[in-house]
UniProtKB/TrEMBL annotation:
TM region(s), chain numbering: none
EC number: 3.1.3.77
Name recorded for this polypeptide: Enolase-phosphatase E1
Summary of the function given for this chain in its UniProt record: Bifunctional enzyme that catalyzes the enolization of 2,3-diketo-5-methylthiopentyl-1-phosphate (DK-MTP-1-P) into the intermediate 2-hydroxy-3-keto-5-methylthiopentenyl-1-phosphate (HK-MTPenyl-1-P), which is then dephosphorylated to form the acireductone 1,2-dihydroxy-3-keto-5-methylthiopentene (DHK-MTPene).
Species this protein is from: Pseudomonas wuhanensis
Co-factor remark: Binds 1 Mg(2+) ion per subunit.
Keywords: Amino-acid biosynthesis, Hydrolase, Magnesium, Metal-binding, Methionine biosynthesis
Acyltransferase as UniProt keyword: no
UniProt xrefs under Pfam families: Hydrolase
Amino acid sequence: MPIKAILTDIEGTTSAVSFVFDVLFPYAAKHLPDFVRQNAGRADVAEQLAAVRRDGGEPQADVERVIDILLGWIAEDRKATPLKALQGMVWEQGYQAGELKGHVYPDAVEALKRWHQEGFKLFVYSSGSIQAQKLIFGCSDAGDLSPLFSGYFDTTSGPKREAQSYERISQGIGVDASQVLFLSDVVQELDAARAAGMATCGLAREGGELTGHVTVDSFARINPSAL
Ligand SMILES: CSCCC(=O)C(=O)COP(=O)(O)O
Ligand SMILES: [Mg+2]
């Protein structure tokens, strides 16, 4: 069955790990405390703060304690949905102020444009919130890439290392899993996608192999029609 849809990870796949760790996460760590203090009464923020209290097992935590929990989660790269939602809100301010520009590798930009033109449906699946995904591609250093994408999925579809998440996503996009190609730099994510029936391709930008999966170092080496 031919590939009809391509589902891509962001960090380490379309975009540099260093952009996430050296630019996005420090930006969030710097601006999140004041953002939370100033917006704790906003309904969408309050909903995420309640989820932090619940997931952190501290239902009575005050705002300052919630901020401490969030900063701890950023430091340990916890893929917690409420943290990711709040990070997306903070980054939005950075993109709007022109302080952030999304990094997307030139080879990824070129391939995504070509695949879109060839008729493949393109989707994103990242631990970053859907808002954060739209920002990295919509305000990228290669311009607005958002018209290329047909949809976005985050951890509200489930964790990236569980097969069920990929089953949900293929149902969500209405394409049989066997006709979806998943791209990632993390072998456990590729294993989970394969267990759900998807085709896989690993990205190892510094070279090397993602065990058990076809591995490339650039989007230029991926031919979805030959998989
Ligand atoms: C959407 S850009 C921010 C990426 C992020 O917050 C993250 O945790 C990276 O996760 P990924 O699933 O893309 O490896
Ligand atoms: Mg990744």
